[in-house]
Design brief:
The complex is a heterohexamer, with 3 copies of chain A and 3 copies of chain B. Chain A is built from 3 helices and 7 strands. Chain A is α+β, with helices and mostly antiparallel strands. The termini of chain A are far apart. By secondary structure, chain B is an alpha+beta fold. Chain B has 10 helices and 19 strands. A 7-stranded antiparallel sheet of chain B has the order 12-18-17-16-15-14-13, sandwiched between helices. Chain B has a 4-stranded antiparallel sheet with strand order 5-4-3-6, with no helix packed on it. In chain B, strand 17 and strand 18 form a beta hairpin. In chain B, helix 4 runs antiparallel to helix 10. The longest helix of chain B is centred in the C-terminal third of the chain and has 14 residues. Chain B starts with 14 loop residues before the first strand and ends with a helix. Classes of the chains: A alpha+beta, B alpha+beta. Chains in contact: A-B, A-C, A-E, A-F, B-C, B-D, B-E, C-D, C-F, D-E, D-F, E-F. At the B-C interface, helix 9 of B face helix 1 of C. Strand 12 of chain D pairs parallel with strand 7 of chain E, so a sheet runs across the interface. The structure holds FE2/S2 (inorganic) cluster (3 copies) and fe (iii) ion (3 copies). The site of one fe (iii) ion has 7 residues of chain C, from helix 5.
C-alpha cells in the first residue's frame, strides 16, 4: 500500500478512535443534550442483551428509529423521569472494522461501564460491545446504527442514562 | 426475631410492619409457606417448549425447577435437583434433549417426566461395587411439581393442597388474562432487572393503582393515563389477584383533569415529543382498554400497555433482593408494522421504560428508608380499609388484598 | 448467641470480648440502644445549610435522616422515611427546595419541619377513592429528631431521654471544641473511607493515644509527635468523650526521646523530606497545641493537626463494615496562603494521610484476626484500669472510658 | 435452626441432610468443633520455611495462623492474633524476620515461638503511663498450636485431645503419603480457586471414587482412568481418611471397558490428541500406580496423577464459600525434562485442569440445587452402606467414611 | 526520524493494536477454533499468577508448548469438559513495546476480563497483563510466546475458556 | 491538512498514548521511584472526587505542588507507611485533547483501577478520569498538572499507591 493510502487508513482509524472517545465522554460528562448529535437523522439505536441478539429476538431495552427519538429520550430523562443521581464511566477497547466500504463502516468495540451512585457505591453496570454502522458525513463520522449488545441479561435497578 | 413472633397491627390490612420486608426469618418462612406452599406460580409460556425434549429452567421461590415438554407432548415440571447427591440436573436456561435428562456428576438418567431410568454402574464393575439390591429406581425420581396451563401460560405448584388453577385464578381475573391472549403468542425478547428490595415491595407497586400517575410523570404529562381517565380495579374475593384497567384518554375530561393535576408537581404543560411515532397504538383488542395491569398471587404479572404486552415474574433472591423477569409478547399473526409498534412501545416499560423505570428504584428506596424502623408500619388507607373491587384507581385496595391473602399463609 | 447472653469479663473495662465487634445480634442491638438511643450524633455543620429550604441527608446509625433549614431559619431533622409507605422523601445527598419536601412515590408533601401538608387525591377523583375521613394529616408527619447546635455543629437524637447537648458534652470537652471553632467555618472538601471493621474498632483507634507514635512511623520520624512530647488526654467523667492534645515538639527533649524510641523499629534517623513546605504550619490558635484529637460519644471526631482541621463521622454499615466521613474545614477569614497551608497539611490525614492511612487498615486487620476468637478478649491496661484524665498519652484510659459509657447502654 | 436441632436420618452415613451444607449455625459450630477441635490440619511443607525467621500465614478454618521456623530450627505455629488488642501480627503471606514478630499497632514484640518479649512503653514515659506491675509478659503470648510433621508435611491443631499425628493418620494412609514423598520436595508453583459451595461438598468430591470417570469425560475418553482399570479405595478404620488408587490402564481390559462405557454419554471414540506429549509420563515411583488421591480428615488432599503431584488445602470461607489451595510439587533431583513433564501434566489438574475443572463447578451446582430442599437428603449407597476399604472405585464408601468421622465431632 | 520510518513505526503500532483487538474478539465471540491461529507453531502459552511469576515458579494454570496443544485445549473444551455457559469480555489497554527487534517484539499490555454467566451475573474475573513475544510472519503478526500474568492468586470456580 | 502535518498530528497522539501506557505501567509494576519523573519540576498533582471537583472545593486526598513532594510521597510509602501488599491494574481509555496549544495540551482520559490484595481479592478500586496538562519537554512529554477525578466519594480502606 502506498504511503498516502497508508496514512489515510491510519488517519481514519484514529478519527474513529476519537469518535468513540468523544461519544463516551458525552455520556459520562452528562452532556446528554449532545448525545443525539453523534447519530444520523434516520438512525437506529438499540440496547439489547447477547441472549436476545443471538436468538434473533428484536426486542430492545431502548429501541429508537430516529435521532428525534433519541432527543425525546433525553428530554424525558431531564423533565419527566425520576432516578437517583448516578454517573457512568465507559471504557472502550479493541476497535475493529468488520466491514469496510470506505466512507461507511461496520464497527465493533468492546465496552465496559462502571456506574457510581451518589453514595459512592461503584458497580460493574455493563459489559458488552458496540455493534455499529458509522458513515462519514460533512461534519465527520456519525452512527447510522448503534446496537449495544450487553453480555448480561440483567440490569441493576434501572437503565436511565443511555450507553 | 422469629417469623412467628411478629404481632400484626389491629388495623389489619391497612397497616404493614416494615419488618416483613427485611426480616431474614420471615423471608425463610415465606420460601416455605408461600413459594413451596399452596400457590400457583408462573413457569413458562407453553409455546416456549414446542417440541418433546425441549426444556427450560426457572424457580419456585429460590428452588430451582426444570420445565419440560415430555414425550407425551405434555408439559412437566420437576425440582432441578438430582435424587442422588443433589446436583443440578439441567445446567442450561433453555435446551433440548432427545434422550431424557442426564445428571453430569454420575450420569444418572431421568426421563422428561423426572422418573429415574438408569444409574451408572448400578451393578458395579467386575462384580465389585454398585448399588445394593434394596435400591429401587422408582423410589428415586426427581421431585415433581403439579403443573397446569391457563391461556397458554404454564403454572406450577409443589403443594397438593393448591386448588385447581382455573379455580385459583377465578373467572373474573381469568377472563382478563384471556382477553390479552387472543392468538398464538410469539416471544419478542426478554429482559431482567435486579431490584434491591424485598419481593413484596415490587408486588405492592404492581398492585398500587394510586402511584402510576404520580410517580411516572411521563404518563401524566402525555395524558396517557391519569386517575381522571375512566378505569378501575378488579380484585379477586380472596384479595390475592387483581386487575387494574384504564380506558383511552378521550373518555376522560382533560380540562378538569389538568385542573386537578395542576397541584401535582409532575405536569409539564410545555413538554411535547419530537417523534411521537413510538406512541402510535391500535386498539387491537377492541374494547377500548389501553392499559391493563394484572397480577396472580404471589408473583405473576401480566401487562398490556397499548400494544406492548409482557408477562413479568417476580423472583425472590434474598430478603432484600429480587429479580424481575420480563417476557415481551407479540402474536403469530402480527405483521412487520405491528411488530414494530410493539417494539417501539416497549420503550414505555422494562428497566429503561418511560413509565416503569421508577418502579425499579422505588422499592430500593423504601428498603433503605425502613432501616431502623422495622417496627413502624406503612399506612394503606387510600380508598378505605377494604380490598373489594372499585370503579377507581385512586385506591390501595389491591394492596390490601395482597396482605389479605399473604397473612393467613404466613400465620399472621 | 443473642445480645443479652454475653457475660462481661470481671476485669471490667480492661477487657473487651472480641464478640462485640463481630456478633450480628449485638450489632442490631447497638443500632437500637446506642444509635437510636440516648446519644447525640453529629449531623452537619450549620453553615452547610445557609438558606431556608436547604437540606442534606445523613444517618443515625443506619437510619436515614434529612436535615433542613426551615422557613423559621432554624435547623430541623427528621427520619427520611415517608409516613405513607416508607419511601425515602429526600433522594439527594444535598439539595434545596422552595416548597417543602415531596415524596416521589405518591406526592405526599411535607413542610421543612416534617409536618404532612397534603396527600395527593386525598379526596379521591370524581367522588371515588381517596382517604377516609378518619385520616388526619397531623397524625402522619415524618418522625422528628431533637436537634441542638454546639459551636456551629448540629447534633441530633431520637431519644427524649438524651440530656441537653451542652450538658452531654460537658464544659471541658466543650471548651476544647470551641477552641478550634473560632471563626465561621468554610468547607474545603470531603472524603470518605469504607473500613472493613466494626465501627467500635475505629472509635477505639481514635481514643487510643498509645498507638499514634508507634503505628504512624511518619509522625515519629519527623518528631511531629511522640509520646515524649508534652501532652495528655482529657476524659469526660462518664468516660464517653475524650480529647488528646500535644504541644509543639520543642517542648519535648529530643535526645532523650530518640534514646527511648531507639528500641522502636519505626525510627529512620536518615529520613528527610525533599520539600517540607507541606509541614509549614502556624500556631493559629495561639496556645501551642499542635495536635488535638477529640471524640464525642458515640461516633463524632474533631481533629486539629497543625492547621488541618476536620470533623469525622463514624457510620456503622453492618457488623463488620463502617463508613468514615471526613469534612475538612477552613475559616472565612483564611487568605489564599492559609488555605494552601491547610490543603498541603491535609496530606497528613484522610485515606492517603501520612499519619492516618494505617488507621484505615488496622481495624480490618483486627476484624480478620478475631475470627474464631470471639470469646477471647483484648487487654486494655496501658495506664492502669481507670478511665480518668491523665497528663500522658502513654495510656488507654480513653478507650476504657468508651466501654464505660457503652456497657450500660447495652446492658453489659 | 440451631446446630443441635438437626436429627440425623436413620440410614446413617447413607443419607446426608442438605442442611449441613447450607446452615450458618452448623457452619459456625464446625469452625469450633472441627477446625478448632481435635483434628490435624495441614499448614505447610516444612521445606517452605528453610531458615530460622522464615514464616508464612495460613488458617485453621477461618482462624488466622502464622507458621514459623524458630531460632531452635523447629517449626512453630501460633494464632495470628496479637495478645494486646487482637491485631494480625503478621500481615504478609510469606516473610522473614531476624528479630521475631512485631505487631504494627503498638509494636509489641514476640519471639518466633509466640512468646511476648516486650511491650512498647511498658514503663510509661517520664514516669507517667505504662502497664501496671501486675502485667506479666509470660501471661500474654500468642495462642500456640501443637504442630507435628509427617513426611515433610507440617500439620497443626489447637486441641490438646488430638492424638499424635502418626496415630491420627495411621500406618496404611501414612504409607501412601510416604510413597509419594520420596525425595526433597520442591515447590513448582501454587494456585487457588474460590468455590461457591460448602467445604464439605468439595471434600465429598475428593472422596468420591465413583464420579471420576463419569464427570471427567476427558479421563474416560483417553482411557487414563476408568472404573474398569484395576484399582480400589483404602479407608481408615475411623472413616476419616482415604486413598483411592488406580493402576496403569494396561492392566484393564479396554474392549470390555468400552463396551461397559458405551452406555455412558462421555465416550468419544474419535477424539484424539494432536500433541499428546503432555501425557508422556514415567512410573517414577515404580509400583504402577498412575493415580492416587488421598485425603486426611478434615481438609487435606494429596494427589499423584501420573507425574503431577500436588497438595490441596480446603479452607472454609463461609457456609457457601470455600477456598481450594493447590501447591504443586517436584523433587530436588528432577532434571529439566522431568520438571517439564510435571508442568505439562499439570494441565490435567487445577482450575483449568482437563480432569478437575468440573470439580470446581459441581459443588456450586449442588449448592444452588439444594435451596429450598434443606431437609431433603443425598443418597450415598454406591458400594453399600459401609465405609470399609474396597478393591473397587465403584463405591461411595470413602464419602460414608467422612460422615462417620464428622458426625460424632458435631454431635449428630 | 524521517517521515517514511515514522509512518512505518506508527503503522506497526496500529497493526499490533489490531492484533490484540482481533485476539480478544476471537475469545469473546466464542471463535475458539481460530484461537490457535494467533500463535506460531512452536509457541509457548501460559497462564500464571503474579505470585508465581515474580517468584520464578514455572507452574502454569494452562501450560502449552505448541500450537497443537492449544488446539487440543479447544477440542477438550468442545468435546470433553463440562462447564456452565459463560462469556468473557476482554478489555486491553496500555500496549507497550518492551524490546524492539523490528520484526520480533516483546510486548506488554494491561488486560481485564469480565465474566458473565448465563444467569446474568457479571464479575471481575481476571486482571493482569499479557507479557508476549510477537513475530512478524508471512500472514501477519503471531505470538511466539504469550504469558498471561494474573494479578490475583484466585480463580473463581474454574478457568475453561483461555485468556 | 497536508500529509506532513497529518503525520505529525498522528505521531503526537501516539506519543501521548505511549505516555499514558508508560505512566500506568510505572504505577502497576511498583516502579514508584520513577513516578515523579513523569512530571515537571513545578507540577500540580491532586487526587479528588467528582463531588469536590464539581463543587469547586480544592481539597485533595493527595495534594502536591512540586515534583519533590511526589518524591516525598514515594519515600514515605517505602520507609514510613504501613499497608498490606497490594497491586493496581490501570486501564486507560478515550484519550481526548481538550485544548491544543501544540506543545502544551489539556488532556483527558477515562481510567479504571482494579486493586488486588495479597489474598487474591480483586476489587474495583477506582473509576474516573485524568484531567491533565501535558507539555513537550527536551525529554518528552511531561505532566505539568494531573488531577485524578474519581467518580466515587469512597475510598476502600486506604489509598497508599498513587493513581
Ligand atoms: S448427583 Fe446426580 S448423578 Fe450423582
Ligand atoms: S410512600 Fe411517600 S407518598 Fe407514598
Ligand atoms: S494490638 Fe498488637 S500491639 Fe497493640
Ligand atoms: Fe409503576
Ligand atoms: Fe492513628
Ligand atoms: Fe473429580
Amino acid at each position: 500500500m502506498d504511503a498516502a493510502a497508508e496514512l489515510a487508513r491510519i488517519a481514519r482509524r484514529i478519527a474513529l478512535e476519537e469518535l468513540y472517545a468523544e461519544y463516551v465522554h458525552c455520556l459520562d460528562s452528562d452532556a446528554l443534550e449532545h448525545w443525539p448529535d453523534f447519530f444520523t437523522d434516520a438512525c437506529h439505536y438499540r440496547i439489547t442483551s447477547a441472549e436476545n441478539y443471538s436468538a434473533g429476538l428484536p426486542l430492545g431495552i431502548i429501541y429508537a428509529n430516529s435521532r428525534d427519538m433519541l432527543r425525546d429520550r433525553v428530554s424525558a430523562l431531564r423533565e419527566a423521569n425520576i432516578y437517583e443521581p448516578q454517573t457512568y464511566r465507559h471504557l472502550i477497547s479493541g476497535l475493529r472494522i468488520e466491514r469496510d466500504e470506505g466512507d461507511a463502516l461496520d464497527l465493533e468495540t468492546h465496552m465496559l461501564v462502571v456506574r457510581t451512585m451518589q453514595d459512592g457505591a461503584m458497580s460493574l453496570f455493563a459489559a458488552g460491545r458496540y455493534a455499529d454502522r458509522a458513515v462519514r458525513t460533512a461534519d465527520g463520522w456519525k452512527f447510522a446504527s448503534k446496537v449495544v449488545v450487553l453480555d448480561s441479561r440483567l440490569i441493576d435497578t434501572l437503565l436511565a442514562i443511555p450507553l | 426475631m422469629s417469623a412467628a413472633a411478629l404481632e400484626w397491627p389491629k388495623e389489619g390490612n391497612a397497616r404493614v410492619p416494615y419488618r416483613v420486608f427485611a426480616d431474614p426469618d420471615i423471608y425463610r418462612a415465606e420460601l416455605e409457606r408461600v413459594f413451596l406452599g399452596p400457590t400457583w406460580q408462573y413457569l413458562a409460556i407453553a409455546d416456549e417448549l414446542p417440541q418433546p425434549g425441549d426444556y427450560l429452567t426457572t424457580f419456585l421461590g429460590e428452588t430451582p425447577v426444570v420445565v419440560t415438554r415430555g414425550e407425551d407432548g405434555q408439559i412437566h415440571a420437576m425440582v432441578n435437583r438430582c435424587a442422588h447427591r443433589g446436583n443440578l440436573v439441567c445446567l442450561k436456561r433453555r435446551g433440548h434433549s432427545d434422550d431424557g435428562l442426564t445428571c453430569v456428576y454420575h450420569a444418572w438418567r431421568y426421563d422428561l417426566e423426572g422418573n429415574l431410568k438408569s444409574v451408572a454402574f448400578r451393578r458395579g464393575v467386575g462384580g465389585k461395587g454398585g448399588m445394593p439390591d434394596s435400591f429401587k429406581l422408582e423410589q428415586h425420581g426427581l421431585q415433581k411439581l403439579r403443573t397446569d396451563t391457563f391461556a397458554g401460560l404454564v403454572f406450577g405448584t409443589l403443594s397438593p393442597d393448591t386448588p385447581q388453577l382455573s379455580d385459583y385464578i377465578g373467572n373474573d381475573i381469568g377472563g382478563r388474562i384471556g382477553r390479552v391472549f387472543r392468538g398464538k403468542p410469539k416471544v419478542l425478547g426478554t429482559t431482567s432487572q435486579i431490584l434491591h428490595n424485598n419481593w413484596k415491595l415490587y408486588v405492592e407497586n404492581v398492585k398500587d393503582t394510586y402511584h402510576a400517575s404520580l410517580l411516572h410523570t411521563f404518563f401524566t404529562t402525555f395524558r396517557l393515563s391519569r386517575l381522571t381517565t375512566a378505569g378501575g380495579v378488579a380484585i379477586a374475593e380472596s384479595g390475592a389477584h387483581h386487575t387494574s384497567y384504564t380506558y383511552g384518554a378521550q373518555r376522560g375530561d382533560n380540562a378538569a383533569s389538568d385542573q386537578l393535576y395542576s397541584e401535582i408537581p409532575s405536569l409539564h404543560e410545555d413538554y411535547r415529543l419530537k417523534d411521537p411515532r413510538f406512541l402510535e397504538s391500535v386498539d387491537e383488542i377492541g374494547d377500548g382498554i389501553t392499559l391493563q395491569i394484572l397480577s396472580v398471587f404471589p408473583n405473576f404479572v401480566l401487562q398490556q400497555i397499548h400494544n406492548t404486552i409482557a408477562v413479568r415474574l417476580v423472583l425472590p433472591k434474598g430478603p432484600e433482593e429480587t429479580e424481575l423477569q420480563w417476557t415481551y409478547i407479540g402474536f403469530g399473526d402480527d405483521d412487520a408494522a405491528m411488530t414494530e409498534k410493539r417494539l417501539l412501545q416497549a420503550n414505555l416499560v422494562g428497566p429503561a421504560g418511560y413509565v416503569s423505570m421508577e418502579d425499579g428504584a422505588v422499592g430500593g428506596f423504601i428498603q433503605r428508608a425502613i432501616k431502623g424502623g422495622e417496627d413502624e408500619c406503612s399506612v394503606i388507607e387510600m380508598g378505605g380499609h377494604e380490598h373489594a373491587s372499585q370503579p377507581t384507581r385512586t385506591t390501595e385496595a389491591a394492596i390490601r388484598g395482597f396482605w389479605q391473602a399473604w397473612r393467613p399463609l404466613m400465620g399472621y
